[in-house]
Amino acid sequence: MRSNTPSCLVSAFRSLRISQTPTTRPSIITNTSIVFRNVQSPQQNVRAFSATASMAGNWLEPSINRKKKMMKGRPRVPTGGSTKGTTVMWGDYGLRMTDHHRRISAQQLKLAEDTIKQRLRGERYRLYKRVCCNVGVFVSGNEMRMGKGKGSFDHWAARVAINQVVLELKGMIHEQVVRDAFRLAGNKLPGQWEFVKKGEPPVVGITKLDGITLEDLKRPRRKISAESVEPVPPQTLGSDSQRAPLDLP
Asked: Using CA of residue 235, residue 239, residue 243, residue 247, what is the dihedral sign?
């Protein structure tokens, strides 16, 4: 018995038809002119890359005209009870000045920063600067008579108030190592400095708000209960026999 396989194949080939669709792959590349129409044009005065140095300045030398004379001024005095700048904000440890307000030069601050970097070489940390040298110091020559002008620019300086935090540090470092680094930095700076940690109470003037509130400091008189007040007994004068002569040792 003959198989119907050849006849089935022939009938199948005869039923095939050539399709009218193109055999080539459609192009997926869009028109570049259409793409660029949708893209917004960049800003005119913005450069994505610049090989020149930044003119914004840093914390040791601001972008201020040196020829412009400025007054000496005085550091900030918190007469209204302000505690700004007396606590650690960004880091875990800080260096705070305790004795008196003064003007610190940029060279002294740079030396303290280099001392900390040299002591903590190889450690993972970040150093925060809480002050900015935005005060220009002008110096005239020696033995100059009065009325000869303010003088020429000499260096930049920063006004540091009393109990103000100058440097802060945060990183994976032991506390004793940071204490030693801040001790060395404090020796390079003028004045007396102390080591503070994050979470310590703020300071108003020279008074720490430890157990006392700002309202208590602003209160003119403190209320004292009458029960706690004891009268002072009057001092009785002794007889002449009980007195010791002044010429005896």
From this structure: positive
